[in-house]
Amino acid sequence: MFAPPAADGPSAPPASMFDSMPGYEGTVAGGGGTGCCIIPSITEDTAREALVLFASSKCCYSSAPAKDGVITNMEAFNTYRYRLETFTETRSTEWSHEPYNGQPVDAFSQPPPGPWDIPAKTPSFFLDSKQTIKVPYTSSMKSCHVCLGMGRKPCKDCAGAGNKVCWVCNGSGYRHGNDRCHHCNGRGRDNCSHCHGQGSRQCDTCRGKQQLLVYINLTVKWTNNSDSYVVEQLSGLQVDNLSKVSGKELFRDSQYMVYPVMGFPDPAVVSAAQRFVNEHQGKFSQTSRILQQRQIIELIPVTKVTYLWKNKSHIYFVYGNEFKVNADNYPATCCCCTVM
C-alpha cells in the first residue's frame, strides 16, 4: 500500500530522437551539453591569489612561496558530478500519553483513520522535516500506571519517611556532651528537603492528575535521500575534496519519478544515473512514499598548478567555483603555533 502509483511515462525522450549538430555534440535533453561544459582554465593570477589566500588562512604557513613562486604549468582536470535526490515521506505510529487535564476522549466513537488517510502538510520538496499528529478517535482516559492513580510516589531520598538522620549530630540529638543539636532541635532527624517532610512527591508522569490521556501518535517524516557520483579526474586530487565545493550546473531535472540521463558525453555519468535511479526507486518505494526526485549534473573545475620555489618543483590544486586550494606539501610551514 506504500508503493506510489505508476508514473505516466519517462520524463526524458530517448537520445536517438535527437540529431547530432556541429558544435553541440553531447547536448542532452532538458538542458546542458558540451556546449556549456567548456570552462576556460583559470588564469595565473587567479591561481596565485587562491594560494595566497590559502597560505594566509594557516597560522603556520609563510606566504612567500604563494607570492614569489614561479608558476611553470597549469593543467585542467575538470570533472562531472552527478547527484540524485529522492524526497520521501514515511509514517509510523506509537502509543503515547500525557497528564489528563480534561481533554476530549474520543476512542471507539468511530473507527480511526488509517495512517496514510490522515492529512499532513507537505513541506518544500527536498528539505527534511517532521510532524507529529494525534490520531483521531484513539484517545482514552486511564489511571496512571506509574503512581497507580495516586498522583504521588514515595520519596526516594527519604524512603517515604519524610525525614532523615541529622547530618550534624548523626541522629543523637546532641553536639557535645549535653549540648542539644540546634540543627535538628534535638530530634536527631531532619525533614527531607526533597519532599518537604511529606514522605511522597508528585508523580512526574501524571503530574499529580492521577489520570492519563492515552492515544496514538502518528509521526510523519520527510527525508531528502541523496547520492552523488564524481567521475575520477586522474589529477591526483582526492575525490573527497570535491564534496565541499560547487560546480557549474549543466543539467537539472525534477519529476515525480525521473528517467535516467541518456546521451550525456561521459558514459560514467550515464552509468551512475542508471544505477542510482534503479537503486532509489527500488529501495524507497518499498518503505516510503516517493514524492519527488531530482537529478543534477555539475561540471567541477579542477586545475593542477606546478610552481618553482627555491629551485624545487611543487604542486597544488585549485578546484570548485570557490577556488578552494589543496596543497598538502606546501614548502614553507613551521610549528610556531601552539594551542593555548
Automatic annotation (TrEMBL):
InterPro entries, A to Z: HSP_DnaJ_Cys-rich_dom_sf, SSUH2_homolog
Protein name in UniProt: Ssu-2 homolog, related sequence 1
BP GO annotations: odontogenesis
Domain of life from the UniProt record: Eukaryota
Coiled-coil spans in chain: none
PANTHER family, per the entry: PROTEIN SSUH2 HOMOLOG (PTHR48465:SF1)
